[in-house]
Task: inverse folding
């Protein structure tokens, strides 16, 4: 985290290790920067405090990486690396950051985008339209059944991002908001990091919100400067590895030329910075 008092008068004296004791959402290098930023921060502090409480609630969701998907790792004392290796996805593509090997070397600077796929066979991943309409999903089991995917598939590791968004809209009653009634859902997604290397999985929101235009603003300091403001149009689901699968018939997963009229259900936009500084 960057010192929130950075750039105001005196220079920072080191890493920002002092968090605001109330909201916990901002951090400072020193007491003096904390004091000098208070005038700015006091107005946002309470709002951020409320937001951080919600973050905690979201961490308990049934769609965060859960029992059903971790059961093998827990029961057999299997490491994350060997779990991924057995499935041929260790240190591969979107899975790179799912174990410590990848996390330590990952650079968000060169976030892939165009050719991202599941690196799994079509039977193991949701690479095309669902075969049946969505019903209410309460667990990973519901989700896997709906998408006809066997429970041993590791996709939950990556899908917890879109599924958490789905679940959050269910529990917060967002569905009754006017925004979704007009078939538009706008989401502020804060502090993305490894998600930047996994953006193709957000394509699954097409299946989770049929007929809805979903737009996600990804806001965070990890977004590289040169990608600030970038718009990404997710025109399809992340692909499988089967050469003859129907998911290959749609040309591009990403279309950066948003200037052309191409109505897609899911768009993303990247913003470098901190949420409170962008409002
Ligand atoms: Zn600030
Ligand atoms: Zn500072
Ligand atoms: Zn605060
Ligand atoms: Zn590993
Ligand atoms: Zn496929």
Result:
């Amino acid at each position: 985290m960057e010192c929130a008092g950075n750039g105001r008068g005196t220079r920072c004296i080191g890493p920002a290790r002092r968090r605001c004791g109330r909201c916990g959402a901002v951090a400072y290098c020193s007491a003096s920067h904390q004091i000098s930023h208070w005038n700015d921060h006091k107005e946002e502090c309470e709002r951020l405090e409320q937001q951080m409480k919600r973050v905690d609630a979201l961490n308990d969701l049934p769609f965060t990486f859960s029992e059903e998907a971790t059961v093998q790792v827990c029961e057999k004392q299997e490491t994350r690396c060997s779990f991924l290796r057995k499935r041929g996805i260790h240190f591969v593509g979107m899975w790179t950051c799912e174990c410590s090997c990848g996390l330590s070397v990952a650079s968000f600077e060169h976030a892939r985008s165009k050719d991202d796929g599941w690196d799994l066979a079509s039977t193991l991943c949701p690479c095309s339209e669902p075969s049946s309409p969505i019903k209410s999903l309460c667990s990973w089991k519901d989700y896997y059944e709906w998408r006809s995917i066997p429970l041993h598939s590791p996709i939950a590791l990556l899908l917890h991002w879109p599924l958490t968004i789905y679940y959050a809209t269910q529990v917060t009653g967002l569905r009754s908001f006017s925004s979704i009634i007009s078939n538009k859902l706008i989401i502020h997604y804060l502090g993305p990091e490894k998600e930047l290397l996994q953006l193709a999985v957000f394509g699954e929101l097409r299946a989770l919100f049929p007929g809805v235009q979903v737009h996600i603003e990804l806001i965070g300091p990890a977004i590289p400067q040169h990608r600030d403001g970038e718009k990404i149009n997710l025109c399809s689901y992340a692909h499988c590895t089967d050469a003859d699968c129907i998911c290959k018939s749609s040309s591009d997963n990403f279309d950066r030329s948003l200037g052309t009229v191409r109505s897609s259900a899911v768009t993303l936009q990247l913003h470098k910075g901190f949420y409170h500084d962008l409002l």
